[in-house]
C-alpha cells in the first residue's frame, strides 16, 4: 500500500498531536501538516517549533483541505468536532482519533455520508503536555487499538492501520465496547489508584518534595502517573463512567479482602493473596 498524503490535518497539538506530526514527518507520509487548536496557542507554538507547516483558522479549513485528519483532544470534545467535520469531509477524506474511550464511535459514525471516521486509540503518552513535549518516537513499539463498527469502510480502516504501523505501532482491532471495558481496567484504573494514593499521603508526615526524595521506585511510578493532565483524565473518567465504576468496585473488593487479612494478621492468607495476584501475571 502506497502511503503518501498531500496534506494531513491534526486537531489538538499537545503531546499526542505534536508527536504524531513529528512521526509522520519522519516517515515522509505527507507533503504538508496543518494544525488546529481551539485557542490557537498550541498550534501557533507548534508552527514556531517547526512541528506543523500551517495553522488552520477553523475546522472548515482542516475538513476541506486535508486528506487524513487526526483528532487529539480531550475525549468529551471529540463528538462535537466529528459532527462539524462531517459537514466538510470529502468522499476520500479519512478521519481518526486518539481518544482513550470509544463510547461515541457508533453514534458519530452515522454523521458521515462517506464513512470517513475510524475510531482509534494509540496507547502511548507521558505525564507531560504541550507541543514542546512531543517527540517522533512516542508511538514506536506501542499498541494502537482501532474500533470499527459494522458499517466501517474496510479500505479506510486498512489505510488508518497502515499509518499507525508505519510509525511503529502494533495495531489491534476490537469493538468500541470491548475497548472501553478493557481500558477501564488496565489503563484508566492505574490513574484512579495513582491520584487517590497521592491524595491520601499528600498531607501526612512530609511535603510532596520530601516524599518524592524518600520514595522508592514504586511510589515514584505512581507520582509520575499522577502528574498527568487533570483535564484529560477528568474527561476520561466521565466518558468511561460505566466501566470505570465497575473496575473501582472490583478493586475495592480486593482491597477490602487484603485489609481483612492484615487486620487478622493472617500470614498465610496474605501470602496466598499476593501469590495469586503474581501468578495471574505469569500465566
Concise synopsis of the structure shown:
It contains twelve helices and nine strands. It has about 280 residues and is of the alpha/beta class.
N-to-C SSE string, H for helix and E for strand: EHEHEHEHEHEEEHEHHHHHH
Counting structural domains, the number is 2
First and last CA, distance: 38 Å
User: Which structural class do you get from the secondary structure elements?
Assistant: alpha/beta
The CATH C-level name of the largest domain is: Alpha Beta
Structure commentary:
The longest helix is centred in the middle third of the chain and has 26 residues, at 176-201. The protein is 52% helix and 13% strand. The protein is built from twelve helices and nine strands. The protein has two domains: 5-174, Rossmann fold, CATH 3.40.50; 178-282, Orthogonal Bundle (6-phosphogluconate dehydrogenase C-terminal fold), CATH 1.10.3660. Strands 3-2-1-4-5-6 form a six-stranded parallel sheet, sandwiched between helices. Helix 4 (78-88) links the parallel strand 4 and strand 5. By secondary structure, the protein is of the alpha/beta class.
Q: Which tags fit this structure?
A:
283 residues; alpha/beta; Rossmann fold; 6-phosphogluconate dehydrogenase C-terminal fold
Produce the secondary structure layout.
Elements: E1 5-11, H1 15-26, E2 30-36, H2 41-48, E3 54-55, H3 59-65, E4 68-71, H4 78-88, E5 94-97, H5 105-109, E6 117-118, E7 120-123, E8 143-146, H6 154-166, E9 170-173, H7 176-201, H8 208-214, H9 217-226, H10 230-239, H11 241-263, H12 267-282
Parallel strand pairs: 1-2, 1-4, 2-3, 4-5, 5-6, 8-9
Antiparallel strand pairs: 7-8
